[in-house]
Amino acid sequence: MTTQTHTQHHDEHAAHAHHAQHDAHAQHAGHAGHAHHAAPAHGDVPGGLQITRDGYTLELAEQIVDAGEIDFRFRILGPEGAPVTEYDSIHDRDLHLIVVRRELTGFWHVHPELTEDGTWRVKLALPEAGAYRAFTDIAPRALGQTITLGADFAIPGDYAPQPTPQPARTATVDGYEVTLGGELVAGEGRLLTLTVRKDGEPITDLQPYLAAYGHLVILRAGDLAYVHVHPNGEPGDGVTAPGPDVTFHTVVPGPGTYRLFLDFKHGDVVRTAAFTLPTVNA
């Protein structure tokens, strides 16, 4: 996986996962100045599948862009059709932009700047032709909660689609080895633990990145149903250790095969480890 330089209380009893979910959400809600990501309610549409939600719309400046470094631009339109300019912070940012290739073989997590006219802009280097999707995690101040909007765009040219990578429990990036423990169960909360090592030695001095020791984005192959999870605990809470384990309480919206992208920071560099994991029966 490509290195990104710009840029995710342990509950031991899975049978009580709904209590862990409540606790994790309470922890996120308690972060000063931070909104939090709530799991979809039963029967709700999973995050990222809609370009419009709760009256808010993701409007890309262009649906067809060139390969290479581009000035990626978009707006969030509110219920009255005007660009939204006031947001509550979600882990130190007013907006998180996630861009992926639709077959989930490429991933970018970046943070655009908001201009006075309500346009978000960021330099984004996309290497090759293909079909892509952009996701925006936002908490419009007038709405009072976090939502995720998604929109497709494309890069023209010779396109050679690739299969979703095979399931694996270990990922390597820049000499770091990250292992994945835990299972995904459709519609039920489970704990996932990501363990970071380098040269066989556990990393115990992970650096905070966006107010957490890791950020985990989970996407379902096929429809790109989206989940963004923050770890249980936070830096400076007196309980959470800076590695080697980073634990997430995770709920996925249904059965399928998922790609998991973990952002972690060490040595002043943000890196991304990617995994493929199918759901299992409870």
Could you explain how this protein is built, in words?
This protein is mostly beta strands and 282 residues long. It has 2 domains: 52-155, Immunoglobulin-like (Sandwich), CATH 2.60.40; 170-280, Immunoglobulin-like, CATH 2.60.40. The chain is 5% helix and 41% strand. It has 1 helix and 19 strands. A 5-stranded antiparallel sheet has the order 1-2-3-7-6, with no helix packed on it. Residues 8-26 have a biased composition (Basic and acidic residues). It comes from Nocardia tenerifensis. This is Secreted protein. Residues 1-48 are annotated as: Disordered.
> What is the subunit organization of this protein?
single chain
Please tell me the overall pLDDT.
86
Give the N-terminus to C-terminus distance in angstroms: 31 Å
Strand content: 35-45%
- In the CATH scheme, the class of the largest domain would be Mainly Beta
CATH-derived architecture of the largest domain: Sandwich
Task: Fill in the CATH topology of the largest domain.
Answer: Immunoglobulin-like
**Structure classification:** mainly beta
- Counted up, domains total 2
What ranges have pLDDT less than 50 throughout 5 or more consecutive residues? Answer: 1-42
CATH superfamily of the largest domain: Macroglobulin (MG2) domain
Number of E-type strands: 19
Percent in helix: under 10%
The Cα radius of gyration reads 18 Å
Tell me about the biggest sheet?
Answer: 5 strands, antiparallel
